[in-house]
Amino acid sequence: RNAEVLTIYWRTDPEAIAFLLPPPLEATGDIVCAHVYKMNDTDWIGPYAECNVMVGARLGDRHGAYSPYLVLSSDIGVAHGRETHGQPKKLGTPSLEARGDLLVGQVVRNGIDIITGTMPYKQRKCDPSDIAPHFDFATNINLKAVDHIDGRPAIRQLTSRTLSDVRIHEAWTGPATMELRPNAQLPVDRLPVIEPLEGFYWRADFTLVAGEIIHDYLEGPA
């Protein structure tokens, strides 16, 4: 309930996206987005902040967004996301705040500010349907990899989950900037900013539902 999100898009090197996508996923473009969430009221977990870096991807006729990097401030959220959905979540300090006439989304890990995105504060209102102009980020695809205790693969799956009950209360757009800094534990700089594109600030309610297995590497397609 009442989640605040700063979404910023940028153009990157197509080869950088291809390097991070696990086959048989295919890229659907050369655009990356980073969502910096301020989760104000979340069942079970409480308030926390999160950043999800996504690229457009498809598996056959299934389209969505693959997450190579995720960082959040909740250790419960890290454990659940990794163990249940296979999301590559790591503990860090995302933040979203207004600094005068500027919205600033940041991610700090290991004392390093590795993501800084900015957008003017609520200068141009937009339709909620405009916030995903490049790919369907509401459908999140992840690689779930779990080993047996002896190191043999136990789970190797592509999982998919789609946000449901989405109710967007307000949406704003404007020019945006994105800076990425190197960090060996969260190397978001592997998706370099070639051209910053638009930004969106939106506030919404949504439900995180159970997902599905769309590809099982140990058994073949689901």
Which helices and strands occur, and which strands form pairs?
Elements lengths: L2 E9 L2 H7 L5 E14 L8 E12 L2 E11 L2 H11 L3 E3 L1 E7 L2 E8 L2 E9 L3 E2 L13 E9 L5 E10 L1 E12 L1 E4 L14 E13 L4 E5 L3 E2 L1
Parallel strand pairs: 4-5, 4-10
Antiparallel strand pairs: 1-2, 1-14, 2-3, 3-4, 6-7, 7-8, 8-13, 9-12, 10-11, 11-15, 12-14, 15-16
Quickly describe the structure.
The chain is mainly beta and about 220 residues long. About 10% of the residues lie in helices and about 60% in strands. The protein has helices at about 15-20, 75-85; strands spanning about 5-10, 25-40, 50-60, 60-70, 90, 95-100, 100-110, 110-120, 125, 140-145, 155-160, 165-175, 175-180, 195-205, 210-215, 220.
Question: Would you mind describing this structure in some detail?
Answer:
This protein has helices at 14-20, 75-85, and strands at 3-11, 26-39, 48-59, 62-72, 89-91, 93-99, 102-109, 112-120, 124-125, 139-147, 153-162, 164-175, 177-180, 195-207, 212-216, 220-221. The chain is 8% helix and 59% strand. The strands form two sheets. Strands 1, 2, 3, 4, 5, 9, 10, 11, 12, 14, 15 and 16 form a twelve-stranded mixed β-sheet that branches. By secondary structure, the chain is mostly beta strands.
- Overall structural class, as computed from helix and strand content, comes to mainly beta
Oligomer: single chain
Q: What global shape is seen?
A: globular
What is the helix fraction of residues, given as a range? under 10%
Indicate the proportion of strand residues.
Answer: over 45%
Low-confidence stretches: none
* Count of separate DSSP helical elements: 2
* Number of E strands: 16
Give a short account of the largest sheet: 12 strands, mixed
Q: What string gives the helices and strands in order?
A: EHEEEHEEEEEEEEEEEE
Cα(first) to Cα(last) distance is 33 Å
Mean pLDDT: 94
* Rg estimate, integer Å: 17 Å
